[in-house]
């Protein structure tokens, strides 16, 4: 099984487990979210250790072992991105399985089990034509001020949504054109989404245009831009004009 096939298979299977846990009605609300995090993480860790025992893993649900930084190949996973949305039984949550090699997000899979669909870097889909009115994805609970300002300058419609993976995949699927985030994320929030988006031909970077770099000792990676390539230069210029710089 190739790395891409493994990423997709693990993400899809974790999604099936998460749906089954929801349907069991054994947990509700925050308890359901916690159970989902633990269940998906245990499965993903076991699957990766079985099929790629020489590789390192960075997971949101595991202790940060910086010994991984001495290795070229590191799987960066978020077993349940959008724990709140999952606990609320919404559709905008995801499973992220990404692989970084020498710090670059080379491949990944993002499962959206409640949709249901899984998007993978090895099976990109064509991008649709740009619509007359652009759409920008923002957090449904705390939209970033920079994103709101850029959307206003572009005349773009704001589209609130839950998890980072769901927002990134909305751009990949053609349901929006821009995902600009400056409110703080970690590597597991965007590694797999970045790999899938880049494979689909989208622009992927920090909000100052710098590349996304993974497998750092501190996995904090606070900002992200995923957008249609024909919009990237304009969006990045608007961010600069607003005086926003990517955090160190």
Automatic annotation (TrEMBL):
One of its GO terms (molecular function) is 3'(2'),5'-bisphosphate nucleotidase activity. InterPro entries: CysQ/Inositol_MonoPase, Inositol_monophosphatase-like. It is an enzyme of class 3 (hydrolase). Transmembrane segments: none annotated. Its EC number is 3.1.3.7. Gene3D superfamilies: 3.40.190.80, Fructose-1,6-Bisphosphatase, subunit A, domain 1. The keyword Hydrolase applies. This is 3'(2'),5'-bisphosphate nucleotidase CysQ. The lineage of its organism: Bacteria, Pseudomonadati, Pseudomonadota, Alphaproteobacteria, Sphingomonadales.
């Amino acid at each position: 099984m190739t790395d891409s096939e493994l990423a997709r298979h693990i993400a899809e299977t974790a999604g099936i487990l998460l749906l089954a846990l929801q349907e069991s009605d054994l947990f509700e609300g925050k308890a359901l979210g916690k159970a989902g995090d633990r269940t998906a993480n245990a499965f993903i860790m076991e699957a990766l250790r079985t099929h790629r025992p020489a590789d390192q893993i960075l997971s949101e649900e595991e202790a940060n072992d910086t010994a991984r930084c001495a290795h070229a190949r590191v799987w960066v996973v978020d077993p349940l991105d959008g724990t709140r949305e999952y606990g609320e039984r919404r559709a905008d949550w995801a499973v992220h399985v990404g692989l970084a090699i020498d710090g670059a997000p080379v491949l990944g899979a993002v499962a959206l089990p409640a949709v249901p669909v899984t998007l993978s870097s090895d099976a990109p889909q064509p991008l649709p034509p740009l619509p007359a009115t652009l759409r920008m994805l923002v957090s449904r609970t705390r939209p970033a001020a920079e994103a709101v300002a850029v959307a206003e300058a572009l005349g773009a419609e704001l589209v609130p949504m839950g998890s980072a993976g769901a927002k990134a995949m909305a751009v990949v699927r053609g349901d929006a054109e821009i995902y600009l985030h400056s409110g703080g994320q970690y590597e597991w929030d965007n590694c797999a989404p970045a790999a899938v988006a880049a494979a689909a031909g989208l622009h992927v970077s920090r909000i100052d245009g710098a590349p996304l770099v993974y497998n750092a000792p501190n996995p904090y990676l606070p900002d992200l831009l995923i957008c249609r390539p024909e919009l990237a230069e304009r969006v990045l210029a608007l961010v600069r004009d607003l005086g926003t710089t990517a955090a160190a």
